[in-house]
Amino acid sequence: MKKIIFAVVLAIVLFVAAGSIFVVYEGEQAIVTRFGKPVGEVHYAGLNFKIPFIEDVYRFEKRILKWDGDPNQITTREKKYIWVDATARWKIVDPLVFFRTVATIRGAQSRLDDIIDSVIRDAISGNYLVDLVRGPTYKAPAGVSAEEILDETNRRSREQILDDILQKAKASTPEYGIELIDVQVKRLNYIESVLEKVYERMISERNKVAAEYRSEGEGDKAEILGGMEKELKRITSEAFKTALEIKGKADAQASQIYANAYSRDPEFYSFCRSLETLEKSVGANSKMVISTESELFRYFKDSQYIKP
Protein backbone atom coordinates (compact mmCIF):
# COMPACT_ATOMS: atom_id res chain seq x y z
CA MET A 1 0.00 0.00 0.00
CA LYS A 2 2.83 2.34 0.89
CA LYS A 3 4.43 1.62 -2.49
CA ILE A 4 1.25 2.54 -4.30
CA ILE A 5 0.93 5.79 -2.37
CA PHE A 6 4.60 6.57 -3.05
CA ALA A 7 4.17 5.91 -6.75
CA VAL A 8 1.11 8.20 -6.90
CA VAL A 9 2.89 10.97 -5.02
CA LEU A 10 5.94 10.59 -7.24
CA ALA A 11 3.79 10.80 -10.36
CA ILE A 12 2.10 13.93 -9.04
CA VAL A 13 5.46 15.50 -8.21
CA LEU A 14 6.85 14.64 -11.63
CA PHE A 15 3.71 16.03 -13.32
CA VAL A 16 3.91 19.26 -11.34
CA ALA A 17 7.66 19.52 -12.00
CA ALA A 18 7.14 19.00 -15.72
CA GLY A 19 4.49 21.71 -15.75
CA SER A 20 6.77 24.16 -13.97
CA ILE A 21 9.78 23.72 -16.29
CA PHE A 22 9.97 24.94 -19.87
CA VAL A 23 12.80 25.22 -22.39
CA VAL A 24 13.40 28.21 -24.60
CA TYR A 25 15.35 27.19 -27.70
CA GLU A 26 17.93 29.17 -29.62
CA GLY A 27 16.27 31.72 -31.91
CA GLU A 28 13.33 32.08 -29.51
CA GLN A 29 12.35 34.41 -26.69
CA ALA A 30 9.46 33.84 -24.32
CA ILE A 31 7.28 35.57 -21.74
CA VAL A 32 5.20 34.09 -18.96
CA THR A 33 1.62 35.22 -18.40
CA ARG A 34 -0.52 34.74 -15.34
CA PHE A 35 -4.21 34.77 -16.07
CA GLY A 36 -3.46 36.43 -19.43
CA LYS A 37 -1.19 39.18 -18.09
CA PRO A 38 2.61 39.14 -18.55
CA VAL A 39 4.67 38.61 -15.41
CA GLY A 40 8.41 38.71 -14.86
CA GLU A 41 11.12 39.35 -17.42
CA VAL A 42 11.71 38.06 -20.92
CA HIS A 43 13.12 34.52 -21.00
CA TYR A 44 15.83 33.58 -23.49
CA ALA A 45 17.49 30.34 -24.57
CA GLY A 46 17.83 27.86 -21.69
CA LEU A 47 15.90 26.15 -18.91
CA ASN A 48 13.24 28.30 -17.19
CA PHE A 49 10.54 27.89 -14.53
CA LYS A 50 6.89 28.89 -14.11
CA ILE A 51 4.00 28.13 -11.83
CA PRO A 52 2.10 25.18 -13.27
CA PHE A 53 -1.60 25.43 -14.11
CA ILE A 54 -1.56 29.17 -13.39
CA GLU A 55 1.07 30.57 -15.72
CA ASP A 56 1.39 30.08 -19.51
CA VAL A 57 4.35 30.53 -21.84
CA TYR A 58 4.22 32.55 -25.09
CA ARG A 59 7.12 32.15 -27.49
CA PHE A 60 8.24 34.70 -30.07
CA GLU A 61 10.80 34.62 -32.86
CA LYS A 62 14.11 36.22 -32.04
CA ARG A 63 15.30 35.91 -35.63
CA ILE A 64 14.77 38.44 -38.43
CA LEU A 65 11.32 38.18 -40.01
CA LYS A 66 10.09 39.14 -43.48
CA TRP A 67 7.28 41.48 -44.45
CA ASP A 68 5.86 41.48 -47.98
CA GLY A 69 3.26 44.07 -48.84
CA ASP A 70 0.64 43.89 -51.56
CA PRO A 71 1.42 45.78 -54.79
CA ASN A 72 -0.12 49.25 -54.70
CA GLN A 73 -1.01 51.64 -57.51
CA ILE A 74 0.56 55.02 -56.71
CA THR A 75 1.09 58.23 -58.68
CA THR A 76 4.56 59.77 -58.88
CA ARG A 77 5.41 63.43 -58.60
CA GLU A 78 4.89 63.92 -62.34
CA LYS A 79 1.49 62.15 -62.14
CA LYS A 80 2.55 58.84 -63.66
CA TYR A 81 0.64 55.79 -62.40
CA ILE A 82 2.88 52.90 -61.34
CA TRP A 83 2.64 49.63 -59.42
CA VAL A 84 4.91 49.51 -56.35
CA ASP A 85 5.79 46.18 -54.71
CA ALA A 86 7.81 46.52 -51.48
CA THR A 87 9.37 44.22 -48.88
CA ALA A 88 10.90 44.74 -45.43
CA ARG A 89 12.86 42.94 -42.70
CA TRP A 90 12.02 43.31 -39.02
CA LYS A 91 12.42 41.63 -35.65
CA ILE A 92 10.83 41.56 -32.19
CA VAL A 93 13.05 43.44 -29.75
CA ASP A 94 10.64 43.82 -26.82
CA PRO A 95 8.36 40.78 -26.43
CA LEU A 96 6.44 42.31 -23.51
CA VAL A 97 5.47 45.42 -25.48
CA PHE A 98 4.88 43.26 -28.56
CA PHE A 99 2.50 41.00 -26.63
CA ARG A 100 0.56 43.93 -25.12
CA THR A 101 0.15 45.79 -28.45
CA VAL A 102 -0.10 43.31 -31.33
CA ALA A 103 0.12 39.94 -29.55
CA THR A 104 0.91 37.83 -32.63
CA ILE A 105 3.00 37.81 -35.79
CA ARG A 106 -0.18 38.22 -37.82
CA GLY A 107 -1.10 41.31 -35.82
CA ALA A 108 2.40 42.73 -36.31
CA GLN A 109 2.23 42.13 -40.07
CA SER A 110 -1.09 43.96 -40.23
CA ARG A 111 0.33 46.92 -38.31
CA LEU A 112 3.38 47.01 -40.58
CA ASP A 113 1.04 47.07 -43.58
CA ASP A 114 -0.41 50.34 -42.34
CA ILE A 115 2.91 51.91 -41.39
CA ILE A 116 5.09 50.96 -44.38
CA ASP A 117 2.41 51.34 -47.05
CA SER A 118 1.57 54.88 -45.95
CA VAL A 119 5.25 55.92 -45.82
CA ILE A 120 5.95 54.40 -49.24
CA ARG A 121 2.89 56.07 -50.74
CA ASP A 122 4.06 59.49 -49.47
CA ALA A 123 7.61 58.88 -50.77
CA ILE A 124 6.50 57.75 -54.23
CA SER A 125 4.03 60.59 -54.70
CA GLY A 126 6.68 63.12 -53.66
CA ASN A 127 9.40 61.99 -56.09
CA TYR A 128 9.87 61.61 -59.83
CA LEU A 129 9.94 58.15 -61.38
CA VAL A 130 13.44 58.67 -62.75
CA ASP A 131 14.67 59.37 -59.19
CA LEU A 132 13.04 56.18 -57.92
CA VAL A 133 15.05 53.98 -60.28
CA ARG A 134 18.40 55.73 -60.69
CA GLY A 135 21.41 55.16 -58.45
CA PRO A 136 23.81 57.71 -56.92
CA THR A 137 26.27 57.39 -59.83
CA TYR A 138 23.64 58.02 -62.51
CA LYS A 139 24.50 60.62 -65.14
CA ALA A 140 22.05 61.94 -67.68
CA PRO A 141 22.97 61.04 -71.29
CA ALA A 142 24.43 63.67 -73.56
CA GLY A 143 21.98 65.76 -75.56
CA VAL A 144 18.37 66.55 -74.76
CA SER A 145 17.17 64.72 -71.66
CA ALA A 146 13.65 64.14 -70.40
CA GLU A 147 14.82 65.47 -67.02
CA GLU A 148 15.11 68.96 -68.40
CA ILE A 149 11.36 69.42 -68.03
CA LEU A 150 11.34 68.26 -64.38
CA ASP A 151 11.53 70.49 -61.33
CA GLU A 152 15.06 70.37 -59.93
CA THR A 153 14.01 71.03 -56.32
CA ASN A 154 14.16 68.14 -53.83
CA ARG A 155 15.78 65.75 -56.30
CA ARG A 156 17.19 62.59 -54.67
CA SER A 157 18.56 59.23 -55.71
CA ARG A 158 16.85 55.88 -55.13
CA GLU A 159 19.09 55.06 -52.13
CA GLN A 160 18.24 58.36 -50.46
CA ILE A 161 14.51 57.82 -51.00
CA LEU A 162 14.65 54.28 -49.58
CA ASP A 163 16.66 55.45 -46.59
CA ASP A 164 14.10 58.17 -45.94
CA ILE A 165 11.31 55.56 -46.14
CA LEU A 166 13.15 53.35 -43.63
CA GLN A 167 13.77 56.15 -41.15
CA LYS A 168 10.17 57.39 -41.21
CA ALA A 169 8.69 53.90 -40.90
CA LYS A 170 11.25 52.91 -38.27
CA ALA A 171 10.18 55.79 -36.04
CA SER A 172 6.69 54.30 -35.67
CA THR A 173 7.60 50.69 -34.82
CA PRO A 174 9.23 50.83 -31.30
CA GLU A 175 5.85 51.38 -29.65
CA TYR A 176 4.94 47.87 -30.81
CA GLY A 177 8.18 46.27 -29.58
CA ILE A 178 9.38 45.97 -33.19
CA GLU A 179 12.61 47.09 -34.81
CA LEU A 180 12.40 47.74 -38.56
CA ILE A 181 15.72 46.74 -40.14
CA ASP A 182 15.32 47.38 -43.85
CA VAL A 183 12.76 48.43 -46.46
CA GLN A 184 13.26 47.78 -50.17
CA VAL A 185 11.18 48.19 -53.32
CA LYS A 186 11.14 44.89 -55.18
CA ARG A 187 9.45 46.08 -58.34
CA LEU A 188 8.29 49.27 -60.02
CA ASN A 189 6.17 49.04 -63.11
CA TYR A 190 3.71 51.12 -65.10
CA ILE A 191 0.03 50.30 -64.99
CA GLU A 192 -1.41 48.62 -68.10
CA SER A 193 -2.72 51.79 -69.78
CA VAL A 194 0.63 53.54 -69.32
CA LEU A 195 2.54 50.44 -70.41
CA GLU A 196 0.71 50.47 -73.74
CA LYS A 197 1.77 54.08 -74.31
CA VAL A 198 5.34 53.25 -73.29
CA TYR A 199 5.44 50.33 -75.72
CA GLU A 200 4.02 52.52 -78.47
CA ARG A 201 6.70 55.15 -77.80
CA MET A 202 9.40 52.46 -77.77
CA ILE A 203 8.12 51.11 -81.09
CA SER A 204 8.03 54.63 -82.53
CA GLU A 205 11.59 55.27 -81.39
CA ARG A 206 12.78 51.95 -82.80
CA ASN A 207 11.01 52.69 -86.09
CA LYS A 208 12.71 56.09 -86.16
CA VAL A 209 16.11 54.48 -85.63
CA ALA A 210 15.31 51.86 -88.29
CA ALA A 211 14.28 54.62 -90.72
CA GLU A 212 17.58 56.40 -90.06
CA TYR A 213 19.49 53.19 -90.73
CA ARG A 214 17.48 52.58 -93.90
CA SER A 215 18.11 56.16 -95.04
CA GLU A 216 21.83 55.76 -94.42
CA GLY A 217 21.73 52.44 -96.26
CA GLU A 218 19.94 53.99 -99.22
CA GLY A 219 22.54 56.77 -99.28
CA ASP A 220 25.39 54.25 -99.22
CA LYS A 221 23.60 52.23 -101.90
CA ALA A 222 23.23 55.30 -104.14
CA GLU A 223 26.88 56.18 -103.58
CA ILE A 224 28.00 52.64 -104.44
CA LEU A 225 25.75 52.47 -107.53
CA GLY A 226 26.96 55.91 -108.62
CA GLY A 227 30.56 54.84 -108.27
CA MET A 228 29.83 51.63 -110.14
CA GLU A 229 28.06 53.55 -112.94
CA LYS A 230 30.94 55.99 -113.13
CA GLU A 231 33.48 53.16 -113.29
CA LEU A 232 31.38 51.37 -115.91
CA LYS A 233 31.25 54.50 -118.07
CA ARG A 234 34.98 54.98 -117.65
CA ILE A 235 35.68 51.40 -118.72
CA THR A 236 33.23 51.68 -121.64
CA SER A 237 34.75 54.99 -122.72
CA GLU A 238 38.26 53.62 -122.57
CA ALA A 239 37.18 50.48 -124.46
CA PHE A 240 35.43 52.63 -127.10
CA LYS A 241 38.52 54.81 -127.37
CA THR A 242 40.74 51.75 -127.74
CA ALA A 243 38.35 50.26 -130.33
CA LEU A 244 38.40 53.50 -132.33
CA GLU A 245 42.18 53.61 -132.19
CA ILE A 246 42.41 49.98 -133.37
CA LYS A 247 39.81 50.60 -136.06
CA GLY A 248 41.61 53.74 -137.14
CA LYS A 249 44.90 51.88 -137.40
CA ALA A 250 43.15 49.07 -139.31
CA ASP A 251 41.53 51.57 -141.70
CA ALA A 252 44.88 53.25 -142.17
CA GLN A 253 46.54 49.93 -142.95
CA ALA A 254 43.68 48.98 -145.28
CA SER A 255 43.93 52.33 -147.04
CA GLN A 256 47.66 51.83 -147.33
CA ILE A 257 47.11 48.39 -148.82
CA TYR A 258 44.49 49.77 -151.21
CA ALA A 259 46.78 52.60 -152.13
CA ASN A 260 49.67 50.23 -152.81
CA ALA A 261 47.44 47.98 -154.88
CA TYR A 262 45.99 50.97 -156.78
CA SER A 263 49.40 52.30 -157.53
CA ARG A 264 50.57 48.96 -158.96
CA ASP A 265 47.60 48.48 -161.36
CA PRO A 266 45.03 51.25 -161.22
CA GLU A 267 42.87 49.73 -163.92
CA PHE A 268 42.67 46.34 -162.22
CA TYR A 269 41.90 48.00 -158.89
CA SER A 270 39.07 49.93 -160.48
CA PHE A 271 37.75 46.72 -162.02
CA CYS A 272 37.78 44.86 -158.64
CA ARG A 273 36.02 47.71 -156.89
CA SER A 274 33.36 47.73 -159.62
CA LEU A 275 32.76 44.02 -159.16
CA GLU A 276 32.45 44.46 -155.41
CA THR A 277 29.92 47.23 -155.94
CA LEU A 278 28.01 45.05 -158.39
CA GLU A 279 28.00 42.12 -155.94
CA LYS A 280 26.59 44.27 -153.16
CA SER A 281 23.97 45.88 -155.42
CA VAL A 282 22.60 42.87 -157.28
CA GLY A 283 21.15 39.79 -155.61
CA ALA A 284 20.78 36.25 -156.96
CA ASN A 285 17.34 36.91 -158.45
CA SER A 286 17.90 40.54 -159.37
CA LYS A 287 18.20 42.09 -162.77
CA MET A 288 20.03 45.26 -163.60
CA VAL A 289 19.64 47.44 -166.63
CA ILE A 290 22.72 49.53 -167.34
CA SER A 291 23.58 51.88 -170.09
CA THR A 292 26.31 51.07 -172.56
CA GLU A 293 27.90 54.33 -171.54
CA SER A 294 28.21 53.18 -167.91
CA GLU A 295 31.67 52.68 -166.43
CA LEU A 296 30.54 49.30 -165.13
CA PHE A 297 29.46 48.13 -168.57
CA ARG A 298 32.79 49.19 -169.98
CA TYR A 299 34.53 46.28 -168.25
CA PHE A 300 32.11 43.78 -169.69
CA LYS A 301 32.56 44.84 -173.25
CA ASP A 302 36.33 45.26 -172.91
CA SER A 303 37.75 41.90 -174.02
CA GLN A 304 40.97 42.16 -171.99
CA TYR A 305 39.04 41.59 -168.72
CA ILE A 306 36.69 38.82 -169.99
CA LYS A 307 38.00 35.37 -170.71
CA PRO A 308 36.43 33.52 -173.65
Overall 3D geometry? rod-shaped
Which structural class should the secondary elements be placed in? Answer: alpha+beta
Strand count, sense and barrel status of the largest sheet are: 4 strands, antiparallel
User: Quick one: CATH superfamily of the largest domain?
Assistant: Band 7 domain
Rg, Cα atoms, Å: 55 Å
Q: How far apart are the first and last residues' alpha carbons, in Å?
A: 181 Å
Strand content: 15-25%
What is the total domain count? 4
Mean pLDDT: 80
CATH 2nd-level architecture of the largest domain: 2-Layer Sandwich
**Order of helical and strand elements:** HEEEEEEEEHHHHEHHH
Uncertain regions spanning at least 5 consecutive residues: none
What would you say about this model in short?
A hairpin with a 2-residue loop joins strand 2 (28-34) and strand 3 (37-43). The protein has helices at residues 2-20, 95-101, 105-125, 129-133, 158-170, 192-264, 266-281, 295-301; strands at 21-24, 28-34, 37-43, 46-49, 55-61, 65-68, 72-75, 81-92, 178-190.
